[in-house]
């Protein structure tokens, strides 16, 4: 039996969600946590017989210029 979309929020509670109409944005400040928690999202989708649309699914990483310059100049 399919669970409601609100249950998605409980599937990986350490992530942040922005839900609007038929779109869901998932974000997190720690890339490692994001990777681990996305596995939980995948399991939730499989349990609810849902498939992510690869053509509409994106991974975007934002970093500040200050942090980038620190990373480039050890």
Give the arrangement of secondary structure elements.
Elements: H1 6-11, E1 16-20, E2 23-27, H2 31-47, H3 65-72
Antiparallel strand pairs: 1-2
Q: Taking strands numbered 1, 2, ... along the chain, how are they ordered across the largest sheet?
A: 1-2
The fraction of residues in strands falls at: 5-15%
What is the share of helical residues?
40-55%
The chain-level mean pLDDT equals 79
Radius of gyration from CA coordinates: 15 Å
Count of helical stretches: 3
Q: List low-confidence stretches.
A: none
Give the count of structural domains: 1
DSSP E strands, number: 2
- The structural class is alpha+beta
Task: List SSEs in N-to-C order.
Answer: HEEHH
Distance between the termini: 52 Å
Main beta sheet strand tally, sense and closure: 2 strands, antiparallel
How would the global form be characterised? globular
């Amino acid at each position: 039996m399919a669970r409601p979309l609100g249950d998605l929020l409980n599937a990986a509670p350490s992530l942040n969600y922005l839900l609007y109409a038929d779109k869901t944005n998932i974000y997190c400040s720690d890339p490692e946590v994001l990777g681990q928690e996305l596995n939980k999202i995948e399991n939730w989708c499989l349990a609810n017989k849902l498939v992510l649309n690869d053509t509409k699914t994106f991974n975007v990483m934002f970093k500040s210029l200050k942090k980038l310059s620190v990373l480039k100049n050890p």
